[in-house]
Design a protein that fits this description.
The chain has about 375 residues and is α+β, with helices and mostly antiparallel strands. The protein is built from twelve helices and 14 strands.
Length: about 375
Amino acid sequence: MLIVLATLIGGILLGLVLSRRQSAQVETEPTDQVTAIGNILDVIPDAAAVVDSEDRVLAASSNCVAMGLVVGDRLVPIELRALNREAHRLQKTLGREVSIKRSNTGLGDWDAKLQVSPLDATRALVIAQDLSEERRLNEVRRDFVANVSHELKTPVGALSLLAEAVQAADGDTERARNFAARMQIEVRRLTAMLSDLVELSRVQDDAPLQNSKPILVDAIIAEAVDGTKITAEQRQIEVVVADDIAVGKIFGDESQLVAALRNLISNAIKYSPVGTKVGIGAKRINEFIEISVTDQGPGISEDDQHRVFERFYRVDPARSRETGGTGLGLAIVKHVCANHGGDCFVWSREGEGSTFTLRFPAYLNGNSPTLEVVAS
């Protein structure tokens, strides 16, 4: 892909250079030619520059400077200068993957795929593709697969042991019944985890949101509360919804928005002491709508607050096993917010409970997510 792009852009640039050279009205390279080349380079997503055999930069895209490849009219990375000299000497396209030092910028090192394609005897097209983000995403994927495998081992292993225990019960009905009950618990835990994995995969999809429409905030809250009513009653938790939640509309996928809020309410109910309250409120702040869920639970330490939205991260693993938590609920919440151009954050103090807040752009009638002058 990079070679095809370089060939295409190289052909355009070479044609521009040659056409300018053939003009009888111009004896030297004019500044407007360099400007034109720079404008072409700026449409390339990767960093790109036209340089001569002495590493002098004739034109460069704006991200060349941002990435530390170019300072003034000179190429900076020694790896890139060496590749440029070699490509000019051999007069052929050369590519190389390197780790470029950026010690003077304070941005740290970055992995890049470099390619230098000669345009003529004295000029070459340089393209630098940043591989750091791609490699980071690959690491995230590997970690995710490892985490899923580890998390699935626990309930699957427990089911295997319990099945053997049932088989060895030798007609002891009471023991067999106890083992069967434990098996049901593990099956529910496994089912919940698989369901959350499917949901997480769905909300992480890069495709545009399906069935997007303006949705009333009070309708989202009502549906989410209704979906947690049984759990709240079982734990004797009173879910209190504020009176002034009719603060407007959010443009998006109703099922995702309800699922995100339902996850927050379910967590608040699970981690709150029996007989306490969970509060839900909403407010309009300029062009944003915020929906908050407050509990009277044990609270979250400051260190844990920075990680609670990570996949499989649990503040208290032992408590999560007790409540059946999968460690994926808040990761789903985070991705739903991102899908809708919003954000999520937490305020908490140990011993005083927690407040999780979803923030979304408000909706203006007839437009995508933005302002709505009058709340419906």
